[in-house]
Amino acid sequence: MKTCDISIWNYHIGLTNMLWLILTFSLASVSCFEPKPEIGVPSGLVPHCPGAGKNATIADSSMPLLQVIIQRLTDTGVYRRSIPIKSAYKAILSDKKFDLSKKTVFYAVGFWDSSVFPHSRAMANGYAKRGYNVLMSETFHFLTYIYPKSVRLSRVIGQQFGMLFVKLTQAGLRPENLELVGTSLGAHIVSHAAKYYQSVIGKKPFRLTGLDPAGPCFRGLPADEKVAPTDAEHVDVIHTNIDGFGIAERLGHVDFYANGGEYQPGDIPYIPCLVICSHIRSLLYWWIALDNPKKFIAMKCDSIQDARSAKCYNNTELNYAGLETDFGKPGIYYLPTHNEFPYYMGKKGLKEENEIYTTVSRNINADDNFMA
To answer: Which residues form the signal peptide (predicted)?
Structure first.
């Protein structure tokens, strides 16, 4: 095994040349080396958060801040309506444009995230263009506590949304038309919603998609406390930062490890996309895949380690990341991407010589004679 030396530095991330804001985060620069017996091996980034599994409640005074967003496209633009969770059921049923006979997607935002942010709106629009009823979570008030306490709230928040889905199903929404998507901490929130839903309805939602589900505090938890294959009829996961803010273990029927799942290539050549950048890249891949359902092509792997090391090119079993995922082909998949928007490589990514990290390194050292 390897251990890692972590130094903290500030890194300015340009999300892509098509996104809308530049975020500044403190990121971890990681260098790995073979451990010596006296210094041990790493146990991960906050694998256990004592107390995170204890009960939590939402006070009546705070409940109006837990909201559901209805979003759809209209002839004049985008319609959005924010509704407190306690009023959401009646508001949705009274909305003449919300058709319970159609596919319905619920998208849960993550830690320090909001439905008002551009990437959340874009995700909702991506589904709306495909004819879905679109619901989103607004949990900013609750997921801006110190992280372990926000984790502690994820179960009760998920159960509240699960209650809403139960009521909608009792009103006519069929389980096979319900799809749940969550980013980071939001992935575990929809997991709790699905678990509650199944306990009451006796059936599972059709699909649950985890976009780099949060790893800190969840790595040491059992399956009933995080995303699991039993949450829905079809569970797929995109891993983009498994050793940082994501989680390495398989959580779904189909798990995609983008570029190995550890870190993603940066938009600027030779500039790495580190922890936060890699973590949020999962939602960008998914959003783009909504418009390009057969462009993110992945190769099946024998193990997570093979996915990490991009040793899956000899496998001819392929799958798509996106709405065209074939759940009849469960397993671990290596998903190659490009470093620039729109990221997908299509069939080009199936050639080992185009594997991006190796290609970049080879190009850097292309000269036979280097003189400094």
So the answer is: 1-32
